[in-house]
Amino acid sequence: MRIIRTANYEEMSVRVAAIIAAQITLKPASKLGLATGSTPLGAYRELVAAHREGALDFSQVSTYNLDEYRGLSGDDPQSYRYFMDEHLFSQVNIDRAQTHVPDGSNLDAAEACASYDRLLEAAGYVDLQLLGIGNNGHIGFNEPDDCFATGTHCVDLTESTIEANSRLFESPDDVPRQAYTMGIQAIMFARRVVVAASGTKKAEAVRAMCEGLVTPSCPASILQLHPDVILIADEEALSLCH
Ligand SMILES: N[C@@H]1[C@@H](O)[C@H](O)[C@@H](COP(=O)(O)O)O[C@@H]1O
């Protein structure tokens, strides 16, 4: 795992965006695995700015998002599809038909997950997977568990994740209790993984990911087995690493 240490969130965002931009420049038809949350927002802003300056062409790019709340349709402002449309897809020249997010409006979990897996398999998985990390070490919505879940699956969100994500809802009661998430396999099949982390709240999860045992109780720790991972993290997020 290569570690790029940055002074703060802004510098982290610039470094993450630069790697994604380089990926698109080198391979215009790149398949990108994308993440939601506060962490990638700055990088998305940088990518939008680069596009507006004429430096980045998304016309051949396709994207596959990690996860979606079960029960939310794409026109719900709390959905991850809405988040991606708002912060990235509507701001660049990407073909919206080439942007993919698990279908939260499909309440048939088995069907929703199987069809997302078929899509990922048909795509041959992604060239670059962008990840944030949950305070409890989750990636996507792969929560701490007794085993690593391989395929796309429906998860019951942990109390700590509901609490952490409630800042984006009116109250914790409004946070959906379940989500569909890409499994560990599709994440590990990405040719390159870029993990972004910022702030002291992520420090323990970052330490466990980089230096702890490879264990499903910290899902991000599986990334120690991936041959091409770049962690871009600020001083605060790296503060517990040796
Ligand atoms: N499912 C998402 C993850 O993909 C994200 O990495 C994590 C951290 O979010 P944030 O970047 O807002 O801290 O939260 C959510 O639960």
UniProtKB/TrEMBL annotation:
<protein>
    <recommendedName>
        <fullName>Glucosamine-6-phosphate deaminase</fullName>
        <ecNumber>3.5.99.6</ecNumber>
    </recommendedName>
</protein>
<dbReference type="InterPro" id="IPR006148">
    <property type="entry name" value="Glc/Gal-6P_isomerase"/>
</dbReference>
<feature type="active site" description="For ring-opening step">
    <location>
        <position position="143"/>
    </location>
</feature>
<comment type="pathway">
    <text>Amino-sugar metabolism; N-acetylneuraminate degradation; D-fructose 6-phosphate from N-acetylneuraminate: step 5/5.</text>
</comment>
<dbReference type="Pfam" id="PF01182">
    <property type="entry name" value="Glucosamine_iso"/>
</dbReference>
<feature type="active site" description="Proton acceptor; for ring-opening step">
    <location>
        <position position="138"/>
    </location>
</feature>
<comment type="similarity">
    <text>Belongs to the glucosamine/galactosamine-6-phosphate isomerase family. NagB subfamily.</text>
</comment>
<dbReference type="InterPro" id="IPR037171">
    <property type="entry name" value="NagB/RpiA_transferase-like"/>
</dbReference>
<feature type="domain" description="Glucosamine/galactosamine-6-phosphate isomerase">
    <location>
        <begin position="10"/>
        <end position="224"/>
    </location>
</feature>
<keyword id="KW-0378">Hydrolase</keyword>
<keyword id="KW-0119">Carbohydrate metabolism</keyword>
<dbReference type="InterPro" id="IPR018321">
    <property type="entry name" value="Glucosamine6P_isomerase_CS"/>
</dbReference>
<dbReference type="GO" id="GO:0004342">
    <property type="term" value="F:glucosamine-6-phosphate deaminase activity"/>
</dbReference>
<dbReference type="InterPro" id="IPR004547">
    <property type="entry name" value="Glucosamine6P_isomerase"/>
</dbReference>
<feature type="active site" description="Proton acceptor; for enolization step">
    <location>
        <position position="67"/>
    </location>
</feature>
<feature type="active site" description="For ring-opening step">
    <location>
        <position position="136"/>
    </location>
</feature>
<comment type="function">
    <text>Catalyzes the reversible isomerization-deamination of glucosamine 6-phosphate (GlcN6P) to form fructose 6-phosphate (Fru6P) and ammonium ion.</text>
</comment>
